[in-house]
Amino acid sequence: MRRFLIALLLTLCLPLAAHAQFYVCASNCFSPNGSAVTPSDSNNGTSPSTPFLTIGKAQTSMQGSGTKKTYIEAGTYTLAANWVLTSADSGETWAGYNGGAAIIQGGGSPGVNNFIVDVQSGTLNITMEGLTFQNLGGENATHSAANGNGGVSFTGSLATPVNHVFKYNNFPQCTDVCVSMSGINNALVDSNRCSNVVSASIQWGDCFTIPGGLAGGAFVTFSHNLCENMYYACVDAAGTSGSTIFHDITIDSNVIVNPCLQITGLSANDCGAIYLADRNISSTNIRVTNNVIMGSNLDILDSNTMTSKGIYLDDCASGVTVSGNLLFNNAGLYPIFYHGGNNNHVTNNVFVLASGGSNGAEIGGYQSGAGTSGGVCQTSGGTMSGNTFQNNVVWFQGNWPVSFGPWETLGSAPTNGPTISGNQYYMQTGVSFRNTTGSYKDSSPIVCGPSMGASPLGNISPQKLWTLLANGVISSWQQIATNQGPTIRSCAAGQF
To answer: Which CATH number among 2.40.30.110, 2.40.30.10, 1.10.645.10, 2.160.20.10 corresponds to the domain 19-25+51-474?
Structure first.
């Protein structure tokens, strides 16, 4: 008997075993056997048969236990205040349940006064997956985070890796910025869908951003995301003056459709589908790889204006590798644009330059300095060095750009032009290739045309490639394989 009592006492003193996960259900809730259940914060929340009613109850329950995962069942969860996660929430996973649409809503319609999701500095190892976020507040919103400007705002100090994971989420409409990461060290933003970033009080209109002028970012990956119909960029990452750390940023295998839809909020009408900047000129190991960029509102032919770019290396962005990307169907007045940076390498990409306009479309722009005030970025007329444009396919679907040539220099011409060599130029309409003189001449061009019997992409046009992408990816969003993309054909030098 004594042994039994001792064993019983020891058992009672043991901590309660942690449940594998909690469940939250707003309405129309059912148990696994199909019977209707009533959600309540008085339930234990440990199964679909006894779900909590509110996200707040699940959050406090995880904070006080060893259970660190909550499934949010299908339904609409309208925030009555910012959903704030702090260090007490470290290690939590918030996930949609069984593929249902779990909608986290900041308000009834897009607007700056709506509430947001605020993952504050000091919070580690947060995972959010399979959720839908809509009508959250944005930049300069009434309820915006202290150091961020997104509907979902992650902030950190860069000193400590946070290891956040944000994947398989859906943003059917955002106010200004869908996801903001300021001062974040180590995060994955993967396989999300962002569409229709619109607002009457729009400031930028990005899907994903590391906002310039704040705390910078490091070891952040944006991959396999679908961005559609945004006012500004799919990914907008900047380490502007005051951001001392901006490095190891990867933008890989994203599909970007119709960016830069409304850029009138910026005085220079300046936009990039993928936008990078670093006025400290200290950025390193920035990779833009295997992305597809297309849109009907990006290209303004026969116009010498600083407007939209496909991949925009702005304000002294440096140490950037741009490789394996496909840009077509009006992918920017300048599909690639260098502005004031050093050691940027653009290689093995396909640039399809749209037909239309008597002058034809240009390959890219090259401009010295950012003309910053108080920053360390070069002023106009400064030296740029170590930049290259090599081994790319440039497909001219229309006329040769006779006004400015394939490259345009803006402002004061940089002291050093990029190294341009080994690029393949496919002249679809049979117009003559005219190699530029001076610093912007390709030292070893490969020129070919339709007499080759096939395009540089093999027997596939960019439009057909897009159709295949749309049928396999866009209609039912899934991860894009990193190695997806066109197989480049070579044509003999000078053949036309």
So the answer is: 2.160.20.10
Instruction: Give residues with Cβ within 8 angstroms of 128, minimum separation 6.
Output: 93, 94, 95, 152, 165, 166, 167, 169
Q: Where are the domains of the chain?
A: 19-25+51-474
Cβ neighbours of residue 190 closer than 8 Å, sequence gap 6 or more: 165, 166, 167, 168, 221, 222, 223, 224, 225, 479
- Per-residue pLDDT at 385 exceeds 80: yes
292 beta partners? 255, 326
pLDDT (tens digit per residue) in 419-472: 999 998 888 777 778 876 666 888 998 887 765 545 555 555 555 555 555 444
Count of residues making up the chain: 496
pLDDT in tens, 147-156: 566 889 999 9
pTM of the model: 0.87
Mean pLDDT within 181-201: 83
> How much is the average pLDDT of 344-355?
86
HEC sequence for 24-92: ECCCCEECCCCCEECCCCCCCCCCCCCCECCHHHHHHHHHCCCCCEEEECCEEEECCCCEEECHHHCCC
* % of the chain surpassing 70 pLDDT: 69
